[in-house]
Write a structure and sequence with these properties.
Helices cover 9% and strands 42% of the residues. It is mainly beta. The protein has a single domain, classed as Immunoglobulin-like (Sandwich), CATH 2.60.40.
Amino acid sequence: MVEEIGTKSPLYAALVAPDSKLPVKVNGEGIEFCVREVGNDIFLLACKREGATIQARFSGLPKDATGAEMLFESPRRVAINSGTFTDWFGPFEVHGYRFRR
């Protein structure tokens, strides 16, 4: 856990950056998220509260966002198309995504 949030983590810069003004929305019950921008990277951190496993749909990312790297789950990636992507969340799951502009 310390390696995932410490100063040498690929996520560290996003943890200390202010919230993004991007109009990102989620369609999925029980999902909480935040978006942070650092340089040319966009980080989306999301978690699922209790309940059933669901497929959540995120929209509102820039159309030029690419990459969709799943942090700490390599080589897992998600497909992003026109600023929108979907992913599965089980109860209490946390996902970190990094997109490139």
